[in-house]
Amino acid sequence: MAEEVYRPGLEGVIATETAISFLDVEREEIVVRGYNLLDLARERTYVDVVGLLIDGRLPDDQERAVLERRLLAAAEVPAQIWEILRLLPPRMHAMDRLRTAISTLGGFDPGVERVDPEQDRESGLRIVAQAATIVANLVRVREGQQPLAPDPSRSFPANFLWMITGRDGSPAEVRVFDQALIAYSEHELPNSTFAARVIASTLADVYGALTGAVASLKGPLHGGANEAVMAMLLEAGDEEGIERWIRERLARKERIMGFGHRVYMRRMDPRAQLLKETLTRLVAERGDAEGQKLLRMCERAERLMHAEKGLYPNLDYYAAPVFYVLGIPIELYTPIFFAARTAGLVAHVVEQHAHNRLFRPRVRYTGPRGLKPA
Ligand code: CMC
Description:
Largest sheet: 3 strands, antiparallel
Pathway: Carbohydrate metabolism; tricarboxylic acid cycle; isocitrate from oxaloacetate: step 1/2
Keywords: Transferase
Protein name: Citrate synthase
Pfam family, one: Citrate_synt
Order of helices and strands: EEEHHHHHHHHHHHHHHHH
Bound molecules: carboxymethyl coenzyme *A
Number of domains: 2
InterPro entries: Citrate_synth-like_lrg_a-sub, Citrate_synth-like_sm_a-sub, Citrate_synthase, Citrate_synthase_AS, Citrate_synthase_bac-typ, Citrate_synthase_sf
Structural class: mainly alpha
């Protein structure tokens, strides 16, 4: 019998082979189908990255235009989805409402029962398109307003941002939002992607796999961290406030959201660096005093956490103030993470179905034995 190895939290365990992405921590590179994710964020669009992840290669200009039109054409959401969302308790967490919507979308896809990579790609593009529309309208529908229908005359990110805020972003804002979507699009095997692959490995459909991923992403140790970071910044108020806020929590041995990462551990998440640069540029260009204060607070807390705990920020840390200066409601930060990640999640489901082996690990049993029921 093979040696029994137990690694709590599966730390360092290789759980699958993949040609989609890999975190090369030594070289500080997030490899996505051979490209550096940061190069993609600087030089390409989110729609390009959707093509790269789901179709397997970067589209050229013409192919990008076709894919963008296809996504925008598929972005309309069945009216029943809005009716169902309206029936849910308004206090229900935005990620739980999103989870319900993603699950229900499967019922409107005629191909849902056909589980193979080709159908996964087809359904997956629908999910990428429709998730954006659902996420953008979560607040509006909860407040009893009519959802904004997608406008195919805008670009994919311009339409997404417009549906969220109800106003047209400047070209610089749309570009920043697009970069944030790319930063969130794919990241190897985080908890939500692993959850999706575990579900897909039973030959369950892509909607089921992505519904599980929404549930996973809600947690504050994962996607929920970006909203917690923003709550911390607003509660702390200013630079002195954030220093005090963090010191108090560290003294109580609490975790500070937006810091630390299972894989990067004691290094900066390259995506956090990207969004920090993006935030710095955006608030300087706009002469945005509040944005500049948030940036100074973030930098102060970053120095403090490094000095006190040797910890660095992760993506969620700088994504929070970026979303805030773009005027995005805080309860949509984690749903936007999911909408951006649909591209990576779909790619993983396609790959799982193409080279499937059921996930079924074992346990180290620590309970009693030999008890008698009577
Ligand atoms: N604040 C304070 N201490 C921390 C933090 C933190 N954010 N993160 C790790 N530590 C400490 C932890 O207390 C432990 O210390 P000790 O050895 O003295 O007990 C040590 O660092 C190792 O922590 P761990 O829990 O064994 O590390 P992990 O790999 O299980 O946890 C993590 C990774 C991301 C769950 C954790 O760093 C964390 O809770 N961070 C805050 C939540 C967060 O920002 N999540 C977003 C992650 S990245 C993007 C995403 O996935 O959404």
